[in-house]
Design brief:
The structure is a single chain. 29% of the residues lie in helices and 24% in strands. It has 426 residues and is α/β, with parallel strands linked by helices. The chain folds into 2 domains: 4-31 and 283-411, Beta Barrel (Lyase, Ornithine Decarboxylase, Chain A, domain 1); 33-278, Alanine racemase (TIM Barrel), CATH 3.20.20.10. Strand 6 (78-81), helix 4 (84-92) and strand 7 (100-102) form a beta-alpha-beta unit. The longest helix is centred in the middle third of the chain and has 19 residues, at 209-227. The termini are far apart. It binds ligand LLP. This is Diaminopimelate decarboxylase.
């Protein structure tokens, strides 16, 4: 559910007409709803209500905007980060280090040092060489790093191949069968305090079965690790719960269903449970607002050319992702259309043969469910400025990331003196 609704034929973001934002900020622009963010946190918490003191660490990669993170910090969330950049962003937005977990296969020594200085809650290790490096870095600082190993349970998450992470051929985690040996080796590393187990099998999961299979494996591993004398105190169950993108499709499992399954599977584990939801918190809390530049006749359906492109919202190009596209002022007519951006690639296509509101040049359209992995994956491809972002709360709204001027793109590069001094060849 979200707070982008129609009142008197016009789409509002909470109480703010989307057209007002377009008029003042221009398009394309991402718009986030505080009420939806707040509701999603509450619904997720409610789903976990049978679990004692869970750590809900928002996956910052889904939406690292400072205002979004500050909103989530106020709601008591922690952060799951995958780089020093995300870590420092989370801390700057008010998320305390003791609620931060650091994931990722390629943490560098510098990133480890920064995280240790900040005093984060847990490092999720993804390989033995990483464990050795972290131990050395921690020792050099006179610290012990709190760690879990992320295990790769070899479970098919049943999602898009590019966002599936728990199969043995994926780069993530340590193989389940090697886990006991990896933990035994980690215990001998003097800079580490081995405290937990972690798992994350993929994103946009629409079925609980693979999650349940992965969690059962985690439970069995915790027992075996304890039998070998490891003091396991945490279990990080990752993120991955899917959100509804296409209203014609069945709803994904609810946070309540997820919470009931987790409660059932983790009974008796006697650990602090951690969760890393990203999309579930922010997906439906954001839309990408765009304006139709022109409509061009196509061989089959018309091409609706909008001013947003694959550089603003990459998901359709990269994962064939489906985003609902709605007119901000629907005229009551629907027809099939191809919705494309101005970038010079065929992949710059948001939808083909989509039955949607009829729109014409100058009309505003909203790409729904764009709050997760939207602005954060934007680029300046085709020398287009990065997409600005707006946060709405009730009848208030603010630009929380401004649209940079095109000059900034040009001035960002520099031309070496030898080119400037040589002049133009005849
Ligand atoms: N934890 C870890 C270790 C992760 O790698 C991820 C996402 C999450 C948590 C959060 O997953 P979520 O709850 O959001 O599903 N750009 C892709 C999604 C990539 C997800 C990467 N990892 C997309 O637009 O669909």
């Amino acid at each position: 559910m979200d707070h982008f609704t129609y009142v008197d034929g016009a789409m509002l973001a909470e109480q703010v007409p989307m057209a007002d934002i377009a008029a003042q900020v221009g398009t394309p622009v991402y718009i986030y709803s505080t009420a939806t963010l707040t509701r999603h946190v509450a619904v997720f918490r409610e789903g976990l209500s049978q679990i004692h003191d869970p750590l809900i660490a928002f996956a910052v990669k889904a939406n690292p905007n400072a205002a979004v993170l500050a909103t989530l910090a106020k709601l008591g969330l922690g952060a799951d980060v995958v780089s020093a950049g995300e870590l420092l962003r989370a801390i700057a937005a008010g998320i305390p280090a003791e609620r931060i977990v650091f994931s990722g296969v390629g943490k560098t020594a510098d990133e480890m040092r920064i995280a240790l200085e900040q005093g984060i809650y847990q490092f999720n290790l993804e390989s033995e060489p990483e464990a050795e490096m972290l131990s050395e870095v921690a020792l050099s600082m006179g610290r012990k790093a709190p760690v879990a190993y992320r295990i790769n349970p070899d479970v098919d998450a049943g999602t898009h191949a590019k966002i599936s992470t728990g199969k043995s051929e994926n780069k993530f985690g340590i193989p389940y069968d090697r886990a006991l040996a990896s933990y035994a080796a980690a215990r001998d590393l003097p800079g580490l305090d081995v405290q937990g187990v972690a798992v994350h099998i993929g994103s946009q999961l629409t079925d609980l079965t693979p999650l349940e299979a992965a969690f059962i494996k985690v439970g069995a591993l915790i027992e075996r690790l304890r039998a070998e004398g490891h003091d396991i105190r945490t279990a990080d169950l990752g993120g991955g719960l899917g959100v509804p993108y296409d209203p014609s499709q069945p709803l994904p499992p609810s946070p309540a269903d997820y919470g009931a399954m987790v409660t059932r599977i983790t009974q008796g584990w006697n650990v602090r449970l951690m969760f890393e939801p990203g999309r579930l918190i922010v997906g439906n809390a954001g839309v990408l607002l765009s304006q139709v530049v022109r409509v061009k006749q196509g061989a089959q359906a018309p091409f609706v050319i909008v001013d947003a492109a694959m550089n603003d919202l990459l998901r359709p190009s990269l994962y064939d992702a489906w985003h609902d596209i709605r007119a901000v002022h629907p005229k009551g007519e629907r027809a099939a259309a191809n919705v494309v951006g101005p970038v010079c690639e065929t992949g710059d296509t948001f939808a083909m043969h989509r039955d949607m509101d009829v729109v014409g040049a100058g009309d505003l359209v909203a790409f729904m469910t764009a709050g997760a992995y939207g602005a954060t994956m934007a680029s300046t491809y085709n020398s287009r400025a990065l997409t600005p972002e707006v946060l709405v709360s009730g009848d208030k709204w603010a630009v929380v990331r401004a649209r940079p001027p095109i000059e900034a793109l040009i001035e960002g590069d520099s031309i070496p003196a030898w080119i400037a001094s040589e002049g133009v060849q005849d």
